[in-house]
Amino acid sequence: MRLITCIFALYFVSSAFAQESCKTPNGETAKCVSIFACPILYESGRSGGPEAYRFLQQSVCKKSFYNIYVCCGSDTIFKPQEIVSKTPDMLADAPRNNYIAKRSECGYMNPDFRIYGGNKTGLDEFPWMALLEYQSLKDGERSFRCGGSIIGRRHILTAAHCVTGVASRYYRLVNIRLGEWNTSSTSDCVNIGKKKECSDPVLNMGFERITPFAGYEDGSRYNDIALIRLDRDIKYSKFVSPICLPMEEKQVVKPNAKMIVAGWGQTENGTNSEVKLRVQVPIVNYRDCARKFGRSLKVTDNQICAGGQKNKDSCTGDSGGPLMLRNSETDQWLTEGIVSLGKGCGEEGWPAVYTKVRPFVKWIKKHAY
């Protein structure tokens, strides 16, 4: 009884704390209330797509240690803005194409008030993850052997060694799968209490063009980056949406920064995971990493080292997937690296080496057409 009384008192205080006027992202005058007292935004954030999440994020009017408050109006999406004619000068500064995701639509995940245990992802977590499916040139068997990330409606960013070099002598890329969670099931569902939640059917996409970086070296994995242009546009949803490219190409990611790697690669059991997993890895100082690998691999400025903790690592099957960093100010995720190589998997003291994305941003924008 005392616990119930305390919870009721806490809710009463938090509600009273936030009852003040505010403006929604669409300019509507409303009240600043607890997210749990605003069903229209709460439900939209849980079940809507990236645009709904962005609207919810911009509706936050206050935060406290124990709650989040939103400007609770009547809308859950942005209203169309007035179209302004572009002058020739404005057009000169416009990007060459619209194939790379806009900053306003990338890197968002739906807010989820549930907590998932272990390293298993949620159904809609990291919706930009792609699975690359191959066919063996020897026996025709199909298997998922690499990953990638959606960066726009037509393009997947991956590792060059996944699409060229030695691997291409034995396997042929045949399919790009999006919106996957469990590769062993045709319908992905999880039980949340008494409620079952399911994801949309997966998307299997063909491709028109593969563009590995011209300076890629198969042996050293230097410049291990490539683009795949799909054969049709991706329809974004809660389960399929793009990740952001880094904005400032010269910005340095600090050592010990916590990054996330996700994928379906090998686990400590020696087999690929059926379910999409995630693991947090720290960035390792460039000099320390170079010294660790010594003559076996000359680590360059175009690579990032991360990991080195036992059984916490990317592994075979994760290649091409993103090394991700969350921008705490905008709540958007950036792809800072691409899974490239390592010494074994999850060995104590041995970080994995990732292709650094920032130096290649101009190349990506030039070739994503």
TrEMBL record:
Major location category of this protein: secreted
Domain of life: Eukaryota
Domain called Peptidase S1: residue spans: 115-369
Record-linked Pfam families: CLIP, Trypsin
Keyword field: Disulfide bond, Hydrolase, Protease, Secreted, Serine protease, Signal
Transmembrane segments: none
Domain annotation Clip: ranges: 21-72
Extent of the signal sequence: 1-18
Subcellular location(s) of the protein: Secreted
Record remark on domains: The clip domain consists of 35-55 residues which are 'knitted' together usually by 3 conserved disulfide bonds forming a clip-like compact structure.
Family indicated by similarity: Belongs to the peptidase S1 family. CLIP subfamily.
Database matches in PANTHER family: TRYPTASE-RELATED
Name listed for the protein in its UniProt record: CLIP domain-containing serine protease
Organism: Nicrophorus vespilloides
